[in-house]
Design goal:
The complex is a heterodimer. Chain A is of the alpha/beta class. Chain A has 9 helices and 10 strands. By secondary structure, chain B is of the alpha/beta class. Chain B has 12 helices and 4 strands, in the order E-E-H-E-H-E-H-H-H-H-H-H-H-H-H-H. The chains are: A alpha/beta, B alpha/beta. The structure holds adenosine-5'-triphosphate and magnesium ion.
């Protein structure tokens, strides 16, 4: 890695997350470097979604620190976080589009909240993002309950991208998409990355996706990062949990 | 450190500087819109001095270029390679053919609202009919009743409402007693307070206050619960698993309310009368004993039964409105919040209308 990239965009140290007596993370350390696409894998319930929520400070961890571009995210006032979160686009596992707003209003919502751009420009930008996310302009007027699962995914990607974030966090973006659509979605992420210089943190169970787009993969288990490296490294891992995860997935 | 977005303009040339990034770039939108770009034959746009350019910033440039081109000006971009892709992304905006659907206009709006209300009424009646139909079907299959669900609903709708119903009706009793006694005193008729209180509270206010409190509490809770389940496809899941939502959700709610509303009303009657007794004691020095002594004459049982006879109707109306609004959330009708609001408004409205109908009917029958 060249000099100047040594400062990680996300730095997680000693993260501890507990729900009652279940410990989800036990001293988790993680670095995400600028400009990379990092895949996060791990069995169901390994704490991937909880990790993402802790990164955005949507939940308060029991211990540990999270910094994003050098700014602390843990234990910071909500008013400060609001500004910091604007630089991050998040795609939630189930889309999380606002049911009462049309797709266009969903996408333009952050712009209307956080900028003083005129309506016309906001509308232009939302429609452009809609196209970038691979949706037809006709979908703009539809409401979330009138969209298919894949369209919801794309719509919420468009919303995650609307503020032109430096960091894009995706929670299982291709789950439930057909293989062609999933491949297209991956292409889309690659395109966006090269166009906008994004850093991407991607949680996925889709091995094809991992091979296609990630630069590096971390495997979560036992409350911490068990293994990290390229996808090839992973499939050759000596840790039984990791090896079996990748072997199991290989079969189909 | 981000540098503010800025530009230098001289006729025929625009030099952009700083970071053209959201949200900061919004600051210069106005200034860009105001630039006189139509005076020259060509416009040279230079972004070499822009350190960071995002889609928001480049769309502002694109709009400026569109404006110039509309008045016949040629626009030449001088941009570094890093900006080329981004600028080409925002050059055209994909617009849907029909955009903002035209509204119905003021007169049409009134018409639509009227039809909408009419449909609501029909839909409500249909739902009540359907519920009773389902209920009667169950009489031949009593095993399909769910006593535990029924008890749970009775606890949520009834037991938990005890404190608020008791306190509110007590306060209403106090207020009514004060008003009545100030009106009666000049005529030296304060002794009739117990009679008047009995009529007002047992016949009208006890049932009404209870019904309104329950309408606010329970109709909204039903709508929210069923609405959320509907959105999460839980109700479809129930159906798929071979369980009727009537058995599991709706009938227990309707029956539960049917059972607890009369009980709550009796409670409201008692605590409302308690408020009256308190005022009678504090203001007129008439003790509890003398109040109670006067009751047997004043308290014609009629009023109690007339008051209680309204409560089953209230119960059905409230439960049916709550459940129906919850189930309607289904597709497109707008979120759970709206359904909840609609349920409360309709339930309270319906309770008051039903009460008025009862008053008229009772009066005509001379009750
Ligand atoms: N709000 C909560 N309350 C209690 N436990 C929770 C909560 N949220 C998550 N958990 C627990 O934390 C663990 C990790 O959950 P998480 O959602 O992060 O899993 P995941 O790795 O994203 O799994 P999947 O791949 O299935 O999405 C699970 O055991 C879950 O039961
Ligand atoms: Mg998850």
């Amino acid at each position: 890695m060249e000099a100047g990239r040594r400062e990680p965009l996300i730095r997680v140290r000693g993260l501890v997350n507990r729900f009652g007596s279940t410990t989800v993370h036990q001293g988790l350390d993680l670095d995400v470097w600028p400009g990379e696409i990092l895949g996060v894998v791990g069995g169901s319930g390994a704490g991937k979604t909880v990790l993402l929520r802790a990164l955005l400070s949507l939940r308060q961890p029991q211990a540990g620190s999270v910094t994003i571009s050098g700014d602390e995210m843990v234990g910071v006032a909500e008013s400060v976080l609001r500004r910091r979160r604007q630089r991050i686009g998040m795609l939630f596992q189930n889309g999380a589009l606002f049911g009462g707003l049309s797709l266009l209003d969903n996408i333009s919502f952050p712009l209307r909240e956080h900028t003083r751009l005129s309506r016309a420009v906001i509308e232009d930008l939302a429609l452009i993002k809609l196209r970038m996310a691979g949706l037809d302009a006709k979908a703009a007027n539809l409401f979330p309950n009138e969209l298919s699962g894949g369209m919801v995914r794309r719509g919420s990607l468009a919303r995650a991208l609307i503020m032109d974030p430096e960091l894009l966090i995706l929670d299982e973006p291709t789950a439930g998409l057909d293989p062609v659509n999933a491949a297209n979605f991956d292409e889309l992420i690659l395109d966006l990355k090269s166009l906008l210089g994004l850093t991407v943190l991607l949680v996925t169970h889709d091995l094809d996706s991992l091979w296609r787009i990630t630069d590096r993969v971390v495997f979560l288990g036992d409350g911490r990062v068990l293994e990290e490296g390229s996808v090839e490294d992973m499939s050759r891992s000596e840790i039984p949990q990791v090896a079996s995860y990748f072997k199991q997935r290989r079969k189909h | 450190m981000p540098r503010p977005a800025a530009f230098q303009f001289s006729p025929g040339s625009l030099r952009c500087e700083g970071d053209w990034r959201l949200p900061d770039v919004a600051r210069i939108e106005r200034a860009l819109e105001g630039l006189p770009v139509d005076d020259t034959d060509t416009l040279e746009v230079d972004t070499h001095a822009v350190a960071q350019l995002d889609l928001g910033g480049s769309r502002l440039l694109a709009r400026l270029a569109e404006r110039a081109q509309r008045s016949g000006v040629r626009v030449n971009y001088h941009v570094p390679d890093a900006h080329r892709n981004i600028i080409s992304l925002v050059e055209t905006v994909p617009r849907p053919e029909v955009f903002h659907k035209a509204g119905p206009g003021p007169l049409g709006g009134i018409g639509r609202a009227a039809v909408e209300q009419w449909r609501e009424l029909l839909g409500f009646l249909a739902f009540v009919g359907e519920t009773f139909h389902e209920l009667f079907l169950r009489f031949s299959q009593p095993t399909r009743f769910r006593p535990l669900r029924l008890l749970a609903e009775m606890e949520h709708g009834g037991v938990r409402a005890v404190p608020i119903v008791a306190v509110l009706s007590f306060l209403v009793g106090v207020v009514i007693a004060y008003q009545l006694s100030t009106a009666l005193e000049p005529y030296g008729a304060a002794v009739f307070l117990p009679e008047l209180l009995t009529i007002t509270i047992l016949r009208e206010l006890g049932p009404l206050v209870t019904a309104i409190v329950v309408a606010g509490r329970t109709a909204s809770a039903y709508a929210a619960e069923l609405g959320t389940m509907q959105i999460n496809e839980e109700i479809d899941a129930l159906r798929t698993l071979g369980v009727s939502p009537y058995d599991m959700l709706i009938l227990p709610k309707v029956l539960g309310l049917l059972l607890v509303l009369p009980l709550l009303t009796v409670l409201a009657d008692i605590s409302g009368m308690g408020g009256g007794v308190l005022v009678n004691w504090v203001a007129h020095g008439q003790g509890v004993a003398s109040f109670l002594n006067r009751l047997p004459e004043g308290m014609d049982q009629r009023h109690l039964w007339l008051g209680l006879s309204k409560t089953p109707v209230y119960a059905v109306v409230i439960a049916a409105i709550g459940c129906r609004q919850g189930l309607r959330v289904a597709r497109g009708a707008g979120g759970v919040g709206q359904a909840t609001t609609r349920a409360v408004v309709q339930a309270i409205f319906a309770v008051i209308v039903v009460n008025a109908v009862f008053s008229v009917v009772f009066n005509m029958r001379g009750l």
